[in-house]
Amino acid sequence: MLPLQLFFDECCSKRLPRKLLDVYLEDYPNIKTLHLTDFVKAGTGDSDWLALLEQEKHWIVVTTDRGKDAKKPKLPVLCSRLGITFISMTPALMNDGYKAHKQALLTVWPQLIRAPLLPRGTRVSLGYHMYNKGLTKAPYLSIDDQAFDIWCHEHGVAGPED
Questions:
Q1: Measured between alpha carbons, how far is 64 from 58 in angstroms, rounded to an integer?
Q2: Category of 110 on φ-ψ map: left (φ > 0), alpha (ψ -120 to 50) or beta
Q3: pTM for the model
Q4: 5-154 has which fold?
Q5: Tens digits of residue pLDDT in 45-95
Q6: Is the distance from CB of 98 to CB of 16 less than 8 angstroms?
């Protein structure tokens, strides 16, 4: 299995990469996490820091940036063009703040560790799946509006148990 290398952009809390290391480093010694501000100055344009990551395509970008600012290059488009896989939080999850982001990442961890096996440039969505007529929500990974596990199965992306 390829090592999991997660790169959190400026929109994410600086605590997220540290928290994941605290929880998983013992069981997954190959995990690496960085926050954008560990790598470049805050405010560095997406196209600048993504160009640096392009050389090491094993990094997976985690972002809450939905590419809505018309004045800036769109992060999702840049990642796809450069062949950088990325995990984009949905607006509902993004609005719920740090604790929800942390809980969501911890909940989807068994799927997340397969992300390095995805085709480069894949956009993974991290959000909620609603149950009980919208009364219950659970963190959920998807690709192209399809459940992560189903998409992986249909595209031959094996899990650690396969």
A1: 20
A2: alpha
A3: 0.89
A4: Rossmann fold (3.40.50)
A5: 888 888 888 777 689 999 987 666 667 778 888 898 899 999 999 999 999
A6: yes
